[in-house]
Amino acid sequence: MGTTKRHVSTIDEATFAKASERGRRLLARGPLATAARYEAGRIHVELNNGCAFEFPVEHAQGLAGAKATDLRTIEVSAAGLGLHWPKLDADLYVPALVKGILGTNQWMTQIGAVGGRAATVAKAAAARANGKLGGRPRKSRAPETA
Hints:
The chain is an alpha+beta fold. The protein has a domain at 14-103: Uncharacterised protein PF10387, DUF2442 (NE0471 N-terminal domain-like, 2-Layer Sandwich). The protein has 5 helices and 6 strands; from the N terminus they run H-E-E-E-H-E-E-E-H-H-H.
């Protein structure tokens, strides 16, 4: 009969204390989800600060194309930080959703930069086609004033 080796990771008290403090700050900063529901192609999320928001299912990775019956069961998890769809094994992080919907220009720029780095077949083909046309147009310089 074989034995199964188990790896147990240990952390010291200082590391645990720092992680616990980061968690407390994250929860205090909020907002946190208190409830979520699926209705008419949209996910509606209630927050602990009295606000609510909703977004189309098709805009969320892991939810797009899912059946309505699979979208109806939503669990608010991790003390309000996450939404989980057990039938889809899909999870969304509430702070990222809030920032994505109600975010600042700086946050949206950061999201755009991530998307701009995406490497897809379609993007590569478009870049090659653009290169055949002479590449990206040069930015015109404003005339200097004396």
